[in-house]
Amino acid sequence: MPVLVMKFGGTSVATLDRIKRVAKRVGVEVAKGYDVIVIVSAMSGKTNELVGWVNETSPLYDAREYDAVVSSGENVTAGLMALTLQEMDIPARSWQGWQVPVLTTSAHASARIEDIPPENIMAKFGEGMRVAVVAGFQGISPEGRITTLGRGGSDTTAVAFAAAFDAVRCDIYTDVDGVYTTDPRVSPKARKLDKIAFEEMLELASLGAKVLQTRSVELAMRYKVKLRVLSSFEEQSDEAGTLVCDEEEIMESNVVAGVAFSRDEAKMTLISVADRPGIASIIFGKLSDAGVNVDMIVQNISEEGRTDMTFSLPTDQVKRAEIAMEELKAEGGLNFGELDVDMDVAKVSVVGIGMRSQSGVAAKMFKVLSDEGVNIKVITTSEIKISVLIDRKYMELAVQALHDAFELEKAA
Ligand code: ADP
Ligand code: ASP
Ligand code: MG
């Protein structure tokens, strides 16, 4: 029988009532004749609570134990979902990642899925089981330890199962009814897109639109998974939601497809570093060794052989970066004046494949921000996106102004 993958996010399984409600959705698909693989997240708020417990117990925690704790939320919902389906007389059982097994790398807290052998689950489908409920977000390392895939990782579990089982489709059920031109929580004018190209979705996700985990989009693109985002709170038809697809499948689209933002950014400046070959390599090599994910970088014009080096990073990595830079100074590897840290910045980006062929998007973006009196601190661009770093207090204003200026509320 054809396999369908259905993934339910945290808000969709937040209570026993909601689990019942989405189990009925699963029942509808089973009745159509699909063997269904259901991927569940932890109940909403649960993973945050577990992460909080780990941090409180051990600030410099052992990542293997972090994974043992934070993966547990999904175990609860997987079991409850299987029980609910059984109560509806639908043959179902739960699977934790290691039982499938979902084989991953050993990069704890951000592991990548290497393989999902389908045999165990297929054998059960062969025996009459109709729904395999799999705990999302988790796997097992070559060392036999539990791993997790990074926050939002259940999306990636879902797409990886769809690829491994050659599913007809991967449906991501969430608390919004599709992918919007921007987060509908920030702009009331945000418009739902019927289709979005993989490349645009990939950029939006990596620039902060958390509706899909970036890696899930990458996998869907690579394995040609038919990926759909839709609401678990509304009655659904086969056309509902947003289809993430190849750009050739989209007839008309705006130059800018969407606006993304990321709130938890920080900016660091090394003031007065020597302007000579090898300096950038020393600084960013050290940061990389310390596990800091540097994003945007600017180097000022130098004066008398010295310059300022500015870069952005996630706020929760600032401490680590500061320690790394002070170490570098103490070791004699780098001489700099001060280390300036700005914790109150945000990144706002516009994304669209139309930018490849149309110029003027950057100029328009900068004009809009200047008209709103928003100062741009750092800029980065690629073929299909422009990102700016601004004061966080202007983030919502900037998102809304850009959404208006590029007329995203109107379809192409
Ligand atoms: P789940 O728990 O189902 O995985 P998430 O909270 O991870 O749900 O993702 C859904 C949320 O993503 C939405 O509630 C919305 O606030 C946010 N979001 C951000 N950008 C977008 C966008 N462009 N389109 C739709 N939702 C978005
Ligand atoms: N429960 C995990 C998280 O909150 C994984 C997920 O929901 O996708 O990040
Ligand atoms: Mg999510």
Automatic annotation (TrEMBL):
<protein>
    <recommendedName>
        <fullName>Aspartokinase</fullName>
        <ecNumber>2.7.2.4</ecNumber>
    </recommendedName>
</protein>
<keyword id="KW-0457">Lysine biosynthesis</keyword>
<dbReference type="GO" id="GO:0004072">
    <property type="term" value="F:aspartate kinase activity"/>
</dbReference>
<feature type="domain" description="ACT">
    <location>
        <begin position="268"/>
        <end position="353"/>
    </location>
</feature>
<feature type="binding site">
    <location>
        <begin position="7"/>
        <end position="10"/>
    </location>
    <ligand>
        <name>ATP</name>
    </ligand>
</feature>
<feature type="binding site">
    <location>
        <position position="185"/>
    </location>
    <ligand>
        <name>ATP</name>
    </ligand>
</feature>
<comment type="similarity">
    <text>Belongs to the aspartokinase family.</text>
</comment>
<keyword id="KW-0067">ATP-binding</keyword>
<dbReference type="Pfam" id="PF22468">
    <property type="entry name" value="ACT_9"/>
</dbReference>
<dbReference type="GO" id="GO:0005829">
    <property type="term" value="C:cytosol"/>
</dbReference>
<keyword id="KW-0028">Amino-acid biosynthesis</keyword>
<dbReference type="GO" id="GO:0009089">
    <property type="term" value="P:lysine biosynthetic process via diaminopimelate"/>
</dbReference>
<dbReference type="InterPro" id="IPR001341">
    <property type="entry name" value="Asp_kinase"/>
</dbReference>
<feature type="binding site">
    <location>
        <position position="47"/>
    </location>
    <ligand>
        <name>substrate</name>
    </ligand>
</feature>
<dbReference type="InterPro" id="IPR045865">
    <property type="entry name" value="ACT-like_dom_sf"/>
</dbReference>
<comment type="pathway">
    <text>Amino-acid biosynthesis; L-threonine biosynthesis; L-threonine from L-aspartate: step 1/5.</text>
</comment>
<dbReference type="GO" id="GO:0005524">
    <property type="term" value="F:ATP binding"/>
</dbReference>
<keyword id="KW-0547">Nucleotide-binding</keyword>
<feature type="binding site">
    <location>
        <position position="74"/>
    </location>
    <ligand>
        <name>substrate</name>
    </ligand>
</feature>
<dbReference type="InterPro" id="IPR054352">
    <property type="entry name" value="ACT_Aspartokinase"/>
</dbReference>
<dbReference type="Pfam" id="PF01842">
    <property type="entry name" value="ACT"/>
</dbReference>
<dbReference type="InterPro" id="IPR018042">
    <property type="entry name" value="Aspartate_kinase_CS"/>
</dbReference>
<dbReference type="InterPro" id="IPR001048">
    <property type="entry name" value="Asp/Glu/Uridylate_kinase"/>
</dbReference>
<dbReference type="InterPro" id="IPR005260">
    <property type="entry name" value="Asp_kin_monofn"/>
</dbReference>
<dbReference type="InterPro" id="IPR002912">
    <property type="entry name" value="ACT_dom"/>
</dbReference>
<comment type="pathway">
    <text>Amino-acid biosynthesis; L-lysine biosynthesis via DAP pathway; (S)-tetrahydrodipicolinate from L-aspartate: step 1/4.</text>
</comment>
<keyword id="KW-0418">Kinase</keyword>
<feature type="binding site">
    <location>
        <begin position="210"/>
        <end position="211"/>
    </location>
    <ligand>
        <name>ATP</name>
    </ligand>
</feature>
<feature type="binding site">
    <location>
        <begin position="174"/>
        <end position="175"/>
    </location>
    <ligand>
        <name>ATP</name>
    </ligand>
</feature>
<keyword id="KW-0808">Transferase</keyword>
<feature type="binding site">
    <location>
        <position position="180"/>
    </location>
    <ligand>
        <name>ATP</name>
    </ligand>
</feature>
<dbReference type="InterPro" id="IPR041740">
    <property type="entry name" value="AKii-LysC-BS"/>
</dbReference>
<dbReference type="GO" id="GO:0009090">
    <property type="term" value="P:homoserine biosynthetic process"/>
</dbReference>
<dbReference type="InterPro" id="IPR036393">
    <property type="entry name" value="AceGlu_kinase-like_sf"/>
</dbReference>
<dbReference type="Pfam" id="PF00696">
    <property type="entry name" value="AA_kinase"/>
</dbReference>
<dbReference type="GO" id="GO:0009088">
    <property type="term" value="P:threonine biosynthetic process"/>
</dbReference>
